[in-house]
Amino acid sequence: MINERNADFAPRMAVNAVLKSGGIPIILPNSAPENVTDYIDTFDGVLFLGGFDVDPTFYHEEPHMNLGQTYIPRDRFEIELVKQSLLAGKSIFGICRGMQVINVALGGTLYQDLSEDPAAQMKHSQTSPGNLPTHHVNVESDSRLFTLLGERPYVNSRHHEAVKELAPSLRSVAYADDHVIEAIESIDSDQIMAVQWHPENMYKHYTEMQDLFRDFVKRSEKLATQAPQQPLKIVHKIGEAYPKEYFG
Fold first, then answer.
1. Is 135 a catalytic residue?
2. Cys-Cys crosslink for 45: which of 18, 109, 132, 220, Cβ 3.0 to 4.6 Å?
3. Residue 244: other Cβ atoms inside 10 A
4. Alpha carbon 47 to chain centroid distance?
5. How confident is the model at residue 30 (pLDDT cuts 50, 70, 90)?
6. What is the percent of the chain with per-residue pLDDT over 70, rounded to a whole number?
7. From the candidates 124, 135, 159, 198, which is the catalytic residue?
8. Catalytic-role residue among 78, 161, 185, 200
9. Helix, strand, coil % (nearest 5) of the chain?
């Protein structure tokens, strides 16, 4: 049985991190995908948070034996929200599941469980308290993330899914030592940054994690004053059968 009460929520720590960075959080309810356009003009940037696994039907796979709980209504809404936000030139920040949703929405795929990835040798689902770091990540020096966190930040880890094939409009900018992708950015613009860990659990004691939220607010302010950038290309349809002209 799907626990719908837990399928959509806004963790207080994420809300507080945005507030502390000078942003004004607007919490959107899960809704039908066709309602996304009603929300677009109410915000300057969108933060995609953690939660249930992304249903593999959205990247044309059958469920793996270790797939966790999914909630298709949230997937549909958030996938549409990614697409419409990009078309409108909004800033996007993804955390954990949020990074995975962004990748799937733009045509990428996931490891439904890290047991599918022969290179994954580290513990990525920590049993220690979530506000404590548990492993390092290696950040590409030419990335926006590098300017915020440096070469080898120490992060927490609470996931069993991971990015497998990157969407063509995204690039990986951080890896764990076992080469699991830990962060992604958009290739040709500053619209997207997403991380696999949970900075909202760490920012109070690890101030560099607050910089991720400050950067999100700063990007949102900057893009809000500009005309929409050339939208990122969405290369294949996910879920519903959208007409070709939908993608521009």
1. no
2. 220
3. 7
4. 8
5. confident
6. 87
7. 198
8. 200
9. 35, 15, 50
Q: Which residues contact 174 (CB under 8 A, 6 or more apart)?
A: 137, 138, 139, 140, 143, 145, 181, 182, 183, 195
Number of Cβ within 10 Å of residue 187's Cβ equals 13
pLDDT in tens, 227-240: 565 544 444 333 34
At 163-184, the pLDDT tens digits run 999 999 999 999 999 999 999 9
- Mean pLDDT for 210-225 is 96
Q: Residues 78, 80, 96, 185: which is the catalytic one?
A: 96
200 in catalytic set:
yes
Is the separation of the CB atoms in 164 and 122 below 8 Å?
no
Q: What mean pLDDT comes out for the span 119-142?
A: 94
Element housing 97 (H / E): helix 97-105
Tokens of 154: 């120490």
The domains located in the chain, with CATH, are 10-247 (3.40.50.880)
pTM for this predicted structure: 0.89
Per DSSP bridges, beta strands 181-186 and 45-48 are: unpaired
185 is annotated as an active-site residue: no
Axis crossing angle, helix 97-105 with helix 72-87, rounded to the nearest 10 = 70
CA–CA dist 137, 139 (Å, integer) = 6
Residues whose CB is less than 8 angstroms from the CB of residue 199 and which lie 6 or more positions away in sequence, other chains included: 17, 95, 155, 209, 210, 212, 213
Say if CB 156 and CB 126 are below 8 A apart: yes
